[in-house]
Amino acid sequence: MINVKRTIDNLKNNGFDVQYFETKEEVRKALLEEIPADSSVGFGGSITVKDLNIYEDLKERGNKVYWHWKAGENESRKEILKNAANADIFISSTNAITESGRLVNIDATCNRITGIIYGHEKVFIVAGTNKIARNSEEALIRIKTIVAPRNAKRLGVDTPCVETGKCMNCNSPERICRATLIIDKQPWGNPITIFLVNEELGY
Ligand code: SF4
Prior knowledge:
This protein is of the alpha/beta class. The chain has eight helices and ten strands. The longest helix has 20 residues, at 136-155. The radius of gyration is 16 Å and the shape is globular.
């Protein structure tokens, strides 16, 4: 049985700031309060964050927002990714959190893992308690049996996990597992706050 309190204690012990919420609506409000109206905000790809509608809220409020998932027809995805990398604040989710207080992610473009680990005044990670795994090994299993196959299907790439629902450690040109990042402790100079929500968010 996953122990949420132990996870929060260990995340804090590893130097992360943690805020705990019962609902995603509470997180939405908290993010709007935490983010100054004149800050620029970059986004990593995340179903959890997309479902919060925080991109739309911030845009409407006048923040400069950069998310390649929201690129218009005539906008350069590459330019948006560059602006997101240089934004004051970066918002993302994480593929998994371990009970020992680590963040585990596998990425394809790798804008998400670089955005989480370096280059911003603040990083906000939003995650449901469904993302908690007992340890790093189980976190990686979670990613390779749930997260990556579902993402591959969503993206419509040609990888075996789309059919099998589990990782075949493929050598496909469209393989989405390109780099793995495990953050053990709060990185220097890149403060990460984890908004942990007692709901199933994303996958
Ligand atoms: S390595 Fe390939 S088969 Fe395994 S999860 Fe990633 S994309 Fe799917």
